[in-house]
Amino acid sequence: MLSRVRVWLNRTYAENVFFMDQLRRNPSDRAVEIHATHGDPDSPVLAAADTADLEPEGLSPAAYVEYALDQCTRRGIDVFVPRLHQAAIVAHRAEFAAAGTALLAPTPEAVAVFEDKATAYEAVRSVGVPVPPWWRVRTADELLTAVGELETAGHKACFKPAAGAGGVGFRVITRAPFSLDNLAGFPGPYVQLDLVVEALKRAEEPVDWLVMPRLEQPEVSVDCLTGPDNRVRLAVGRTKNGRRRGFTLDERWLGPARLIAEGFGLHHLSNIQFRMLGDRPVLLDVNTRPAGGLHQLSLCGVNVPWAAVQLALGEDPGFLEPPFLGQDYTVVSGPRPLLPAALPRQRVESAEVVLPAVPSPVQSVQAAQVLPL
After folding, report:
1. Considering just the CA atoms, what is the radius of gyration of the chain in Å?
2. Is the peptide bond prior to 335 cis by the omega test (within 30 degrees of 0)?
3. Which of 5, 70, 290, 330 reaches 20 to 30 Å from 297, CA-CA?
4. Residue 304: Cβ-neighbour burial (10 angstroms; 0-12, 13-18, 19+)
5. Alpha helices (runs of H) in 166-277, residue ranges in sequence order
6. The model's pTM
7. % helix / strand / coil in the chain, to the nearest 5?
């Protein structure tokens, strides 16, 4: 009889409640126990987990590695899916292996390349993947130069942090003056150039931004599952065009994604994003972690989180081909239960780790259901 698999997700996105659900509903019918940690006691991933801890605040990356090693030892973790402090954690892969824990994460070299978007663009351009024109900006004068060159070429300029995740810090530059129109409706991504320049001049420290043209839709996020042999086991594109979502196996997107995943050692789960510059796809971003929308591939008949855990455990699932592509869909939100108390439930560890007497309510209504249009 196969033993139970213990998986830990640290300070991850709320959408990963679905990642956890898919692990429990794995096609191998194997028992899975999930441990979750977070800094927010009201994170839904804590309520969805079998066991949960609040993470200590203010730890340095090195101190966090010590905390993580202790969690893996005390909780008997088989597979650790790190998001917070991923770079520091993967640098200590051998220590986690000695504790009996496999890391579901890329190589340290891959994480280092893609932590910084400017370094990433240089690297992927060197292997032939198209990237948009970009400028690294730290001062007001550098910003004005970059915006001027982009506008001369007929582009709208935008900027985002050189290091960061998701859409945090993304803004689109406009020269239209600030007016009451900017105070009507919901806040948008546009920001006045003169306000940004003044803010930069007043700033006590330089920023570190990437300035580039605003790229057009569709956006295609290619989810890749790659083995330690640098061979991609699965690549499927998720298309986004306004509210409409869909899936694609078009090699315009999958070919460059495979080249990046295999060429840079993006082992296990990664997400590689493209958008359009004129009539050609260019790289937007590379995430060295599972995407929040990875669970949507279940609409194509595949359970990618479980295949990734198998791969981390050395149980190669082989090459996966979706049996079909799901129909177009959209994403809506809904309720998800939280823990009744302000703190996650704790339990006294015994020599043998067992599930709590009352399991988490995994059958409850999900937080971000996907529904066909």
Report:
1. 22
2. no
3. 5
4. buried
5. 193-202, 251-263
6. 0.88
7. 30, 25, 45
pLDDT of residue 221: 98
**Residue corresponding to tokens 């198998």:** 310
DSSP calls for 287-343: ESS--TTGGGGGGGT--HHHHHHHHHTT--------SS-PPPEEE--------SSSS
> Token digits for 34?
């999930």
Q: State pLDDT tens for residues 51-99.
A: 999 999 999 999 999 999 999 999 999 999 999 999 999 999 999 999 9
Give me the helix-helix angle, 193-202 and 140-152, nearest 10°: 160
3-30 tens-digit pLDDT: 899 999 999 999 999 999 999 999 999 9
Nearest to 158 by CA among 187, 129, 191, 117: 191
Structural contact between residues 143 and 159, judged by C-beta atoms closer than 8 angstroms: yes
Q: What is residue 354's predicted lDDT score, i.e. its pLDDT?
A: 39
Which of 117, 221, 119 minimizes the C-alpha distance to 169? 117
CA 325/CA 348 separation, integer angstroms: 45
Residue 369, CB half-sphere, CA atoms under 13 Å: how many? 10
Give, in order, the Cα–Cα distances in Å from 127 to each of 50, 123, 172, 258, 263. 43, 7, 29, 12, 8
* Alpha-carbon span 367 to 332, nearest angstrom: 8
